[in-house]
Structures are given as structure tokens and as C-alpha cells.
Design a protein that fits this description.
The protein has about 350 residues and is α/β, with parallel strands linked by helices. The chain contains 13 helices and 13 strands. The chain is about 40% helix and about 15% strand. Helix 2 runs parallel beside helix 4, helix 5 packs parallel to helix 7 and helix 9 packs parallel to helix 10. It is globular and about 55 Å long. The structure holds zinc ion (ZN).
Length: about 350
């Protein structure tokens, strides 16, 4: 998971009007002609409706509703050539060229809606996709702490929470409650693993919530579903076993997380795993030592969440820091087009 989508503010309405105008006039694709030799990688987590009444897991992980995802696939079909990881590896090996405006569709974590909602739409468009699995959460009831927290906040009768640093945050409606949940999850990201685990284990007690057995297992895909998708051209990459931020654990632990995740997928699918997605994927979440661990494991391409499309030259120079665009359900189709535009590189650096 990763989430950083800013809330829309009234001040941004002029910017939004300009963006919509740029989208409608096609200006949004300015400079595109100079970017034919590029690789544009989009990053999804979940395809679902976060506003449905019974949605009780982590909303910021929802990348798009099925309807929006379908429209985004239409946009890719119109302006890009969707490729697979296999195409990229063969290109890295010098065995073939990538098409102009190459695009790769990726998903992180391994949520069940990738199978139930995204997969049928990918098949409709005849698109491959690459799904990064956090293997410790596939076919187990182990929760991601952000989903566990979201569940507790959605079902609590309480109206406040005391944070580990002693401050108390309270809420009087579901929007405020979602904000407090988000603050708590962001704080967890900054803590060392062992300390984080104590607060995570304690949250249901503090909020007076008991979680039904199997709840988190039902949120994720199982191996039969993964194998069924594999047969239909969906590829799978590693995303660690437990989803730690790799710069916050020892290099030895990082190696175990990478290799453990890779070998479990290989045992289940009977195929070498060639792709890796860094958990959280920001600049501070990886470094050269970690890139080397990933490369030494036999992975051929690794993906960050640094935004913006990449030139093919850049990717060839270092296929272990490939950029991806994080997609949020708050993005309109104009936002999506802007994220995928070369202009995004000049804005995001
Ligand atoms: Zn993730």
C-alpha cells in the first residue's frame, strides 16, 4: 500500500478547470511526440467502490471503481501499447524492441478484487497485467495493519482514540473518523516493526472491536485464483512476505523478505518470478544496497512509486528503480491523463 493523495480544496478549483480544459482539448498530451520511446507504468491496488455502505477496509487503497478502471483501460488502449513484464525482460535482454508508448499495468498487494473486478475487465481489453503479491497475506488470515485499523474504526462504538504519543483524537462523523484512521496508519509507518506490532495488536482492544475469523483472508486472493489468472496471461511479481519498508529493517531481513516472497510464488506457480515491487516505493524506501539484494535474487525489473513516465533509456540504465504512477479513486480521467503525461515528469522531478 501507499497513499498520499491530497484532499481537494476550493483553491484548487481553477487548477481543476484548467486541467479539464487541457484534457478536453488534447493539450494534456503536449510533448507526447518526443516521448514515444517511453515506458509508462500505472500502479493500482484495489478495484472496488469505497463509498458503498458496507466497505470496511482501507479506502485509500482503492485505486478505481470498476467503471473508472474500464474507462482508464480505454484510455490506455487509445494512447498506449500495453506490454507485459515478459516483453520488458526480452527488451532488456536485447531480444526485441518495445513498441512506442509502451505501458505496463501493475497491482500491488494481492487483493481479491483484482480477481473478481479487475481481471474480467483486463480480459475484455485483452491486456496483460503484473500483480505483486505480499505472500504472507495470501491464503492466510494475517491482516495488513491498515485494513485491520480501517475495520476497527468502521465498527467501533468509540468516538476517540489515544495515540501512542499520548494525544487524543476524536470524531463525530465518519469522514472525521476516516481522517483519524489515516493519521494512525501514517504514524504506524514511522515506527520500528516490533513497536508497531504492539500498537497494531492493541488497537482492537482500545476501540472495543472483535474481528471475525477469516475476515482478512477473504479480502485477499488465494493461490487457486492466482493460478487461474496466470493461465490467462496475468503475471505475478514479489512484494515481500510481510510488507515491511525495506530501509527500516536490516539488510539480512530485507534479503529474507525478497527471497521468501519470490520463492513462495515460484513454488505455487512453477515459473521464475522476474518482477519486484518495493513496499511503499518512495525514494526513502529503497537504496542501492536494497536494489542489489533484489538484483542478486534473480529479479530482472523492480518498481518504485516515484511518479512520472520513464524514458526507455532510463529504464535500461537501471531497471531496479522503474517509476510508476500511483492511481487513486479520487483521480478523474483528466487527472489520470495528466499523471501519464510527460508533463508529470517536469512536475514531480
Ligand atoms: Zn504494497
Amino acid at each position: 500500500m501507499y497513499s498520499n493523495t491530497p484532499e481537494a480544496s476550493p483553491r484548487s478549483s481553477l487548477k481543476r478547470k484548467l486541467l479539464n480544459l487541457a484534457y478536453e482539448t488534447g493539450l494534456i498530451r503536449a510533448g507526447r511526440g518526443l516521448w514515444a520511446k517511453s515506458l509508462t507504468v500505472v500502479n493500482y491496488h484495489r478495484i472496488d467502490d469505497p463509498y458503498r455502505k458496507d466497505f470496511d477496509s482501507f479506502k485509500p487503497n482503492v485505486s478505481a471503481t470498476p467503471q473508472d478502471f474500464d474507462r482508464q483501460l480505454d484510455y490506455l488502449a487509445k494512447w498506449f501499447n500495453v506490454v507485459s513484464l515478459k516483453d520488458i525482460v526480452e527488451w532488456l535482454d536485447g531480444r526485441k524492441d518495445l513498441p512506442p508508448y509502451a505501458a505496463l499495468i501493475t497491482f500491488d498487494d494481492g487483493y481479491l478484487d483484482n480477481y473478481t473486478s479487475a481481471f474480467p475487465l483486463l480480459r475484455k481489453h485483452n491486456f496483460p497485467a503484473l500483480i505483486f503479491l505480499t505472500t504472507g497475506h495470501i491464503a492466510t488470515d494475517a491482516p495488513f495493519y491498515w485494513d485491520m485499523a480501517a475495520y476497527c474504526f468502521a465498527h467501533t462504538q468509540s468516538d476517540h482514540l489515544t495515540f501512542p504519543d499520548g494525544r487524543v483524537e476524536s470524531w463525530s462523523n465518519s469522514e472525521q473518523r476516516d481522517q483519524v484512521a489515516k493519521h494512525w496508519i501514517e504514524l504506524m509507518k514511522t515506527l520500528p516493526q516490533a513497536e508497531k506490532q504492539i500498537y497494531v495488536d492493541n488497537l482492537p482492544v482500545l476501540l472495543g472491536v472483535s474481528i471475525p475469523t477469516g475476515f482478512f483472508q477473504r479480502l485477499m486472493m488465494n493461490w487457486d485464483q492466482v493460478r487461474e489468472m496466470q493461465k490467462e496471461g496475468i503475471e505475478f511479481g514479489a512484494h515481500t512476505v510481510h510488507h515491511p519498508i525495506l530501509t527500516r529493517i536490516s539488510l539480512k531481513q530485507a534479503r529474507e523478505e525478497v527471497i521468501g516472497s519470490k520463492s513462495t510464488i515460484e513454488d505455487e506457480l512453477g515459473e521464475p518470478v522476474l518482477g519486484f515491487g518495493y513496499p511503499n516505493g518512495q525514494a526513502s524506501d529503497l537504496n542501492e544496497s536494497i536494489e542489489r539484494v533484489v538484483a542478486d535474487s534473480g529479479i530482472r525489473a523492480a518498481f518504485t512509486l516515484l511518479s512520472g513516465p520513464a524514458s526507455q533509456d532510463e529504464v535500461k540504465q537501471n531497471p531496479y528503480t522503474i517509476r510508476r504512477m500511483f492511481i487513486s479513486h479520487k483521480h478523474s480521467l483528466a487527472d489520470y491523463a495528466m499523471l501519464l503525461s510527460p508533463v508529470n515528469r517536469y512536475w514531480s522531478g
